[in-house]
Amino acid sequence: MKFFAHAIVFFCVLVSACSAVTRSQGQESVRVASLPPSSAPSSGDYATFDPEQAKLSQPIPRGERFEAGRMIAVVGTEPVLVGDLLSPTRVPEDALSDREFEMRLRKELVNSIAKKCLAQHFLNLQTAGKPKKERDEIRSKMMAKTAEIFRNQVMPEQMKQFKCESELEFMKLVESQGSSLPTLMRSFAESAWAEQAIREKTKEKHDAQLFELQDYYDQHPEQWERNRRAKFRVLSATFKAFENDRQAAYTAIVDMGNQVYLGGAPFEAVAKQSSKGYNADEGGVFDWVSPGALKSKAVEDTVFSIELRALSQIIEDEDGYYIVEVLEREEPRTLSFAESQADIRTKLIEQKKERERKNFVKEVIEKTPIWTRWPQDIPGSRDIAEIQ
Asked: Based on the domain organization, do 71 and 114 belong to the same domain?
């Protein structure tokens, strides 16, 4: 469901909020931690699914209907229905007879199971060692606080984005996509708690040692090669902009060149006011480009041959007339280890964080009782037929 998927990603980026229960002066209180955008996964993925390795299941026997309400997994004590993963309005009868639908569903299920495991892990941490009544109260408070954040912060932003003037209008939009506000809120809560579980487990600060930086530099020589490149700006008079009147286009490019060369007008101001073509709104400026990056070979040849900070002669190609000025130019070179250290350190630290994150997710999944229609997709899980 397009809207649903977009909304959940937006929720994670906007407010990844969740609750942790603390004791203060003998009374229980709910602490809500708002996470920065960087804590949320960009794609919403918590686990991976390899369609190349997945074996297709046997089709459902003829006459047995497969509907959105069918249970396809149980995570802990929480059931997962087909309609929880894909819009119920777009789940056809006998859906698992469609191999493409099955693979899509299984991919969604793998990610959903991982997220549910993490969310349950976080909730269990908040209630560990407490009596059942107290555990239920804590969970209720956490859900209430998350629902408040959803209504006061997330939903207004969504209404604004989709130009809904009232909550009723937004509700109808959500329902037209086969979802509901309670479903969106629950998914927001689940995503938030899952991310908080990861955040609390991966607080350790990582660094990269000098020998690790050197090893990476030595093992990836191709990453430090830099092609010849140049920064330049251009005045343009395309034939199309002058209704294919070449004389009018030529007169315009001459006038622009005279304003800069003879009149001393700022190049970029002339480009914004009079240029008709490439990057005119940005003053005709092109950031670093390498050979082969430009559409016009005539312009490219000039950019890599004329002197710096000098106006070119009028250039003509099949689309129009141009005048360029090269601002900077660099010849091909190899970045030194000293130049590359900062980028390498950032990359290695991110790799370490991602490994730690994946290992934690794998550990949580392995500890969670899981039954699924496709146990081959989740190592350690069991066939849902055992409990149906």
From this structure: yes
